């Protein structure tokens, strides 16, 4: 799911509106970077004055004064918003939020981030631990979890993403990390597990991968142990995201998660399965923030 280059330019322009107040203007940053000279800045401003709402970055690209990558870098500097260069091999291209903020999936991830930020627990506090569960949408939910993790980190939240899919781990591949130890190790062995937290190439985003396969996966999750241990490990983080995409909610006890998001596939996921999952999650006291329909 990719946008055209014109859509990308439009997305960056929209971001100038959202984030420009109180921050350096894109034109000033491009000038400081050497990407534009003063006469080009003046020409862009003149074009803006004659246009119907065209934003600076988009106008500069349209005039041929700069390119998308330079506008991307200027936006990153303006927002303190990290965007990896296209082709960077440290993150899988499926984690599109790390590369292209205007892609539809990136926008969806930011919408979910906003939903989380706007929600409150019963005591009025923000939810910190959020589980993402798929109903017949395992692959899509895992990718959505990765993109949501990036979106949270880009917004300045110290984010810990945890892959609980021990039988079919995904996140270590998406973020090019080792899977020698992780959740399976954490649940199998007592001790200090802080060494299992791995930083990713996305600033502010760390992961605990699923870890090596074990024969007793169901038994490992048949307790509150997961969230008890994650609560200790996440003390230095603002957001804890749990990718439970493979479980359909059948293994993990959600007692301990503040909130959950349920991903379903349009015309594929069973409504009965979704209702059962929602009931199971709610019975543990976990808030259901909403559902995501994947077409």
TrEMBL record:
A cellular component annotation (GO) from this entry: plasma membrane
Any one Gene Ontology molecular-function term assigned to this protein's record: protein tyrosine kinase activity
InterPro entries reported in the protein's UniProt record: Bact_polysacc_biosynth/exp, P-loop_NTPase, T2SS_E_N_sf
Transmembrane regions listed in the UniProt entry: none
UniProt-recorded name of the protein: Capsular biosynthesis protein
């Amino acid at each position: 799911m990719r946008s055209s280059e014109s859509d990308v330019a439009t997305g960056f322009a929209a971001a100038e509106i959202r984030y420009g107040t109180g921050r350096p203007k894109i034109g000033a940053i491009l000038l400081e970077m050497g990407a534009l000279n003063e006469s080009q800045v003046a020409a862009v401003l003149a074009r803006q004055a004659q246009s119907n709402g065209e934003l600076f970055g988009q106008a500069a690209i349209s005039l041929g004064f700069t390119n998308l990558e330079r506008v991307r870098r200027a936006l990153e500097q303006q927002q303190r918003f990290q965007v990896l260069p296209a082709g960077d091999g440290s993150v899988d291209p499926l984690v599109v939020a790390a590369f292209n903020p205007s892609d539809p999936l990136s926008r969806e991830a930011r919408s979910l981030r906003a939903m989380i930020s706007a929600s409150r627990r019963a005591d009025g506090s923000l939810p910190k631990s959020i589980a993402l569960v798929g109903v017949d949408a395992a692959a899509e939910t895992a990718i959505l979890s990765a993109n949501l993790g990036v979106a949270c980190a880009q917004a300045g939240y110290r984010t810990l993403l945890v892959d609980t899919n021990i039988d079919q781990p995904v996140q270590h591949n998406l973020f090019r990390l080792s899977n020698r130890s992780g959740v399976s190790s954490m649940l199998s062995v007592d001790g200090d597990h802080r060494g299992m937290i791995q930083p990713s190439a996305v600033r502010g985003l760390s992961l605990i991968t699923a870890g090596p396969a074990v024969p007793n996966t169901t038994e490992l999750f048949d307790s509150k142990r997961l969230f008890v241990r994650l609560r200790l490990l996440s003390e230095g983080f603002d957001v804890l995201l749990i990718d439970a995409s493979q479980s359909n909610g059948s293994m993990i006890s959600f007692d301990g998660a503040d909130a959950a998001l349920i991903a379903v596939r349009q015309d594929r996921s069973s409504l009965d399965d979704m209702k059962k999952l929602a009931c199971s999650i709610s019975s543990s006291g976990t808030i259901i923030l909403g559902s995501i329909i994947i077409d």
